[in-house]
Structures are given as C-alpha cells and as structure tokens.
Amino acid sequence: xxxxxxxxxxxxxxxxxxxxxxxxxxxxxxxxxxxxxxxxxxxxxxxxxxxxxxxxxxxxxxxxxxxxxxxxxxxxxxxxxxxxxxxxxxxxxxxxxxxxxxxxxxxxxxxxxxxxxxxxxxxxxxxxxxxxxxxxxxxxxxxxxxxxxxxxxxxxxxxxxxxxxxxxxxxxxxxxxxxxxxxxxxxxxxxxxxxxxxxxxxxxxxxxxxxxxxxxxxxxxxxxxxxxxxxxxxxxxxxxxxxxxxxxxxxxxxxxxxxxx
Amino acid sequence: xxxxxxxxxxxxxxxxxxxxxxxxxxxxxxxxxxxxxxxxxxxxxxxxxxxxxxxxxxxxxxxxxxxxxxxxxxxxxxxxxxxxxxxxxxxxxxxxxxxxxxxxxxxxxxxxxxxxxxxxxxxxxxxxxxxxxxxxxxxxxxxxxxxxxxxxxxxxxxxxxxxxxxxxxxxxxxxxxxxxxxxxxxxxxxxxxxxxxxxxxxxxxxxxxxxxxxxxxxxxxxxxxxxxxxxxxxxxxxxxxxxxxxxxxxxxxxxxxxxxxxxxxxxxxxxx
Lengths: 261, 272
What we know:
The complex is a heterodimer.
Chain A: H1 6-22, E1 34-38, H2 41-50, E2 52-59, E3 62-69, E4 72-78, H3 83-96, E5 101-110, E6 120-128, E7 132-133, E8 149-150, E9 153-156, E10 162-165, E11 168-169, H4 172-179, E12 188-195, E13 198-199, H5 203-213, E14 217-219, H6 222-232, E15 236-242, H7 246-259
Parallel strand pairs in A: 1-4, 1-5, 5-15, 6-12, 12-14
Antiparallel strand pairs in A: 2-3, 3-4, 5-14, 6-11, 6-15, 7-8, 9-10
Helix pairs in contact in A: 2-7, 3-6
Chain B: H1 3-17, E1 24-28, H2 31-40, E2 46-50, E3 53-60, E4 63-69, H3 73-88, E5 92-101, E6 111-119, E7 123-124, E8 140-141, E9 144-148, E10 153-157, E11 161-162, H4 165-171, E12 181-188, E13 191-192, H5 196-206, E14 210-212, H6 215-225, E15 228-237, H7 250-263
Parallel strand pairs in B: 1-4, 1-5, 5-15, 6-12, 12-14
Antiparallel strand pairs in B: 2-3, 3-4, 5-14, 6-11, 6-15, 7-8, 9-10
C-alpha cells in the first residue's frame, strides 16, 4: 500500500506531531509580563488577594499562581525564603511562565548603618554573600570570619564556561520606576540587596559584609534569585523593606506592578 | 502527503521522543568531572543545550544516561537539576565530582559514597556588639527545609537527605581505579574551609567527611521530586595533610561512576 487512507494519514500526522511536541517537556510555556517573587506568606497574600482569575500550580514542593493584575498577566511564586527553594521556584516559574521581568519583594535586615526601619531599598545590584574561602590555619588557632575572603558565585554560560560575578545587576529601567515610588513608611533608596541563608547578628561581621560585599541589606534569597535570572537572561528588579512589615512590602510591590509598563 | 513523508515524520518523532526519558541523570559541576563520562557515551552521543546548560545523551552500560554539566555552586546546580528533571525524567540522579576532605583519614583520590548529604552553610549567629568580633564556632546551623505539598508546611531536614540504599550498595562494591571507597557524609556550601578548627567543627557537628558545593542541594531537589539519588565525591584536597586542590582527581570519580553504571542492574522491561 503506497498511500494510507486520508483518515489514517491524518491520524499518523497527529500522532507524529504529538510525539515531536512531547519532546519539549514540560507543558508548553505560558508567558507572562511580570513574575513577582517573595518568600514570605504575609507578603504574598495581599498580592494574591488582588490577583484576578488566579490559577494555582504546584510543581513538586513549589507553588505559583497566574492571573491578571493592573492590566498585566502576572505570575506570583512563593520562594520560601532560602537560596535553594528560591532558585528552584524561580527556575520552575521561568520555564513554565517566562516573564519579561522578575520583581523580588519582601523584608530584610540592615547591613548599612545609615538605613532606618521602614526604608525601602531598591536594588541597583544584588550580592550573594554566602561564598567564602578561609585561610589555612592550624588546629587550635580558632576560626575568625573577619579574616575570610569572598567567594563569588560563578554562573554557567551557553559556552560551557562559567563567568564570575561579584554582584548581579538589576534592570535599570525597572529600577528607575521603583525609585520613583513612595515607601509606605520611610524613604526609598537605591542599594545592594544581599542574600544568604544566614541571620547575622554579630555587629563586626555585619560591618565586614557591608564593607566587602557592599550590601545594604540581608535576606534569604534575593541575590540568588537574581543569579538565577541572569542564568536565563531574564531582567530582574527588587525592593526590600528594612525591618518592616510584609504588608508594606506587598504594598510596594503592588504599586510597582501598577507603575511598570 | 506521501507515505514516505509520513513515515519520515513518524521516524523523526519517534527518534526525538526516544531521547526521553533517561534512566540516570549524571551530573558534574566542571568539565573535568564530565569529560570521561561524555566519552563513555560513545560517538553517537547527542548533545542538547538548554539555556546555559549542556546535556549529552547516550548509553553507559545497560542504561540510557544524560550527562549534565551543571556548573558549580547552588545557583547553577539547582537550576540545572530542575532543567534535567523536567527535560529527561530520570529515575536516578548521580551527582559526582571533587571535594575537600574533612575526615583526617581520607587521602587524595579516595571516594566517599554519600549515605547522606546536607547543606552546612546556613546559620544564625549570636548577638555580638561592635568590637566583639566574629566567632563561627558558636554559630547555630539552620537546616535546609522543604515544603511538603500534602500539608503545605515547611519541613526541616537537619540531617540532610539520605542516598538511595540500592544505589549505595552497588557503589560500595564498585572499583575506584585511583583510590579507596568509603560510605560517608557529604556537606555542601559555597565555602572552601581551610581553618582546621572549623573543619573539625563541621566534621563533629554534622558528621561530614567531605565538603563541596552541590550534592546536598541536588539531594534536596531529588527528594522534592521523589527521585532516587546518590552522590560520589572524590577527595581532591586534604587540609589536614596540606594536600592542595588537584583538579585531576575529578577523573577518579568519573571513572568510578562509569564502573558504577556498569554494575547498576538494568531496568526491568516496562519500568521506565
């Protein structure tokens, strides 16, 4: 039989195309304008309350929502507050809902002594400050974090080589938009959002981090999300409320979503 | 449409679909850690680039394998693992590469088969006033947590994530051509620790035998996706002995992994 009947030909083509498309797992990406990322439920909830037609998706341990906000198609992802969860959640969100921009929001602790509670730090850059190399010191000589060196993260590139970066840049246009907004309580300042899965309460170490990494604040995830964004070439911006309320962080994120085009 | 064209399309589709799934996703952070593995896939290996990440598909022993060059550290390996899982649907992830010794008995080219892997880089410090310095040996570890989708609650894993028992059993009867093989505990963080007091503290606090930068992160992801996982780490530097980093130690773990895949039982028909 040289030719199949028309119905069987159509079926064969349908099966073949289906198999070809199945090659590109997961399900076809559903692009959005903006991906909002936060690790704090109390910062996420006011945003989710405003997200129209929200559809919830769970991928393994991570959850995101997709809907409409301020006339834009928006995905919201819960990053759970530490680098591993944040990079996993962001990677899943980027693959399933590739955005034009990622905006990271939440609260943070101050590294810069000039910051006041309630100030909003808008990222000019992000610094993942968890990388260290300690000097060779014999047994009995102790450990002193003030003598460690920085170990920047390397990012893989499509050329099978890694590129070192002390900081990851924020998208300048989005940063300009954020810097024009008003803080719920406090000032709006440009700075460096630092992150590590650490809570630093030693004043000398905080001063060391501020001096050596240039960090304005610390939280559990911002810079790692920015690094993930850089891996995939997606623009990223972010803002953190210093020792503030998650509700204030949500309010700032909602105002950014309205203002950003 | 001619029959020939339909057959071509079907063959193309079948060929494309046949690239998935794989049985084993084998990861290395650096080129030296995957070079021998890619060579073992043979001349028919297919390279696939997805974003910044490269994967090579082929067979090693009785297994269909994807070899993944992840890049070093949490950001790279987490993103690469998510891509590898979603694209190639492995049943088992093998993370392998170099590590620094934390147990004094370990020597260059010895391999630790990870009974468990944990993230040791997370902590909360005590409050210290300005001028009081920094004392890492007094910091309190923060365990890695993952959200349980069934309860929507975060669950802490203070001992990290255990390796797959069947894979560990196979690994412990696999030959390391360049050194010895021990079961042990692998610690991951973006750190290179050469202060021996802190090395000893990590060994005593977490039970760590070696330190490196990826295993525990990949182990957490495998746990979250319900996949089997094992890590092999070769000692590339040993601070107690003053042995500096030897990048070529990566060959030991790659060759060991090839032997492991040869020993790992073939999947039963229809199980993938």
